[in-house]
Amino acid sequence: GQGRCAGWRTQHRRVDRRQGLPGNRVNGLCVDREGGVWLATPTGIVRVQLDSPFAAHGEAQGLAGGPRQLARVGDRLYVTHGEGFAWRADADGKFASVNGFRTGSHHVIRQGDGVLVTALGLHDITRAGEDRMLAGPYLYGLAELRRAPGRVLASSALALRFFSRDSAGRWQQDGQLTTLSTGVDDILERDDGFVWVTTRTGEIWRIDFSRGVTDTAPARRYGPEHGVPTALRRDNLRVFTLGPDLLAASAHWLLRYDATTDRFVPETRFPALDFSGDRGPDMTAQAADGGAWFYRREPSPQFSRLRPDGEGGWRVERIAAAPLRGLVINSLYHDAAQDTLWVAGQGALVSLDLAWQPADAVPPLRAVVRRVRTPAGRILAAPDARPAALALAAENNSLRFEFAAPTFECEYRGATSLQYRTRLDGLDREWSAWSDEARRDVSNLPPGAFTFRVEVRDLNGRAGTAPPVAFTVAAPWWRTPWAFVGAALLFALLVTGIVKLRTRTLRSRNAHLEEIVVARTVELERLRRLELDGKIAAQIAEEKAQLEMLRYQLNPHFLFNALNSIYGLVYPHSKPAGELVRRLAEFCRGTLTRTDDQWHSLAEECAMLRTYLDIEQARWRERLVIEFTLDPAAATLRLPAFLLLPVVDNAIKHGSATSPDVLSFRLMTQRAADGTVTIEVANTGTWLAPSDPRATASTGIGMENLRARLQRCFPAAHALTVETPPGWVIVRLELARVDPNARLEKPTR
Q1: d(CA 741, CA 64)
Q2: Contact status, residue 18 vs residue 92, Cβ threshold 8 Å
Q3: Mean per-residue pLDDT of the chain
């Protein structure tokens, strides 16, 4: 069998092969509750939906290809589609194709008792069906210019072109608009001499023909600066009139043109349309009475019609359009002669009878649980043999519920659309999500009482419920009350025996353990003291070794360089030489006479570094530029002795080797609001990796010692990083959450 969703509005309601029946012979018929007629034919069973305002028109009525636009001339309805051009007479509803179209057609307008059609050129179709085509570019939009009778405006992919009749009555191109060079979809002429168009790139333009229809008529674009948001072609941008007003609409907004400000403003006069935020109509059309049609796909397909209501007023009428669910609409056409709204969609042409009234009230939607069965296929319940409540054994705790809702309400393709949701009382707290699935599986149900419920809804919003199915699942034998009592007694006996045995064992071991505890306590105390003394001695030895290694690394080459500098100053400058000797003595005294308590303030550390740099300054002179930037708030920070000296020594040594001319050195200290102290040592030059040939003189001991001392003195409270911006090497040390007024003491013995 087969089912179809179509309606016919002819007086005699003739239904035959031309409307899609497989044949004209009918052996029997009956009417169902939803306005359908079932026909028994020699080749099968057919259902015809008669009581519906919607009618589908397709190949059975002679229409091929996806419809695009419609227009009425007298008793004929013309339609452009993806495979050519066709017309339909009101008498029989059959479409007839017009020959001569090698491609699909786009736009159609009335011209006398015939029509003009855009396709691969401009086609002049007479009422007799004659096609006189003007060869030319592929054309899209089309409009007759009332201010210039006998001329039409058509759009190609890149221009707007003018056409007029020649002396023989044939249409010919007589120019193109030079002020607009883009393809146009919609063309709307106003009585004020302006023509409004929407382009194929999603823009709105206004062409000024108020001073005459010329090739150089001014064209102006309306964009975001004029209140028109950016639109895409798929947003179905349209311009149309509503009484005296000009409106523009896309899938995201509805605007009205304000001539006083020359801007588009949001249309807020009709809150019932609910076009706010990022919501607009998916399709619009001009109504024959001066109003407008709006179509929206979500949340449910619906038409809204603005109709005149009194002096300058409008009222909103809504028409549910659930059968159009899933249809992508190309255009709408209000056929006032037949009081019909035509919907041209991608793959279907649907008509909506605006004068339709249902013959009978719409029946409620009913659902039924068809059967309940096990995964193995055993049927436990069916609609014709269902007890008041099912009593299921423990092994039947996995079930499949199958349900349905008989209905023939369908969408434009003839398919029904039902959605179900379920709830299992005793297991679910909420209803499940709506789904097309007409079954539900549950498994591993616990023992107890349950009730299975089903709700259904169709594409028109009708809702229904199925009679609930109550059932119980028995508990397995090991979950019965007697099983629990026996298990409890056995467990009590087992626990009692274990406790007695364990108590006897513990008492026998208690005395022996007390003696062991006393002896072990004395031994542990002795070992703890030895371990503490050993740790302190190892830590002191490690710190002394680190300091000795640092002195051995620093003194030889530094003293050698300092003595060479003194030698160079002795003869010509005795006073600078004496000053240098004094500074060297101070530095040596500070480095060689320290005790193992090596902690001092950051200010003292910087003073020692200044002495070191002054000695180096005597050696390098003008080739060494030194800059100190010290934050007084960080001066009281306590540091281990010579913590920064390896970094400064590396900066002078490696910076002089990699700086092209003058070596610049910078030392900066800063304390943040949260107590973090930042110490930054920077020098010009480049970073020398251990693999670099220029770093052969470096042993890397200085930086290794620095990291080890930081880990020992500031565990989890420091960060040492090296940055290499162009021409510089920056070593940055951060000590987190350091109180500058608190002394960071070295661990004592």
Answers
A1: 91
A2: yes
A3: 82
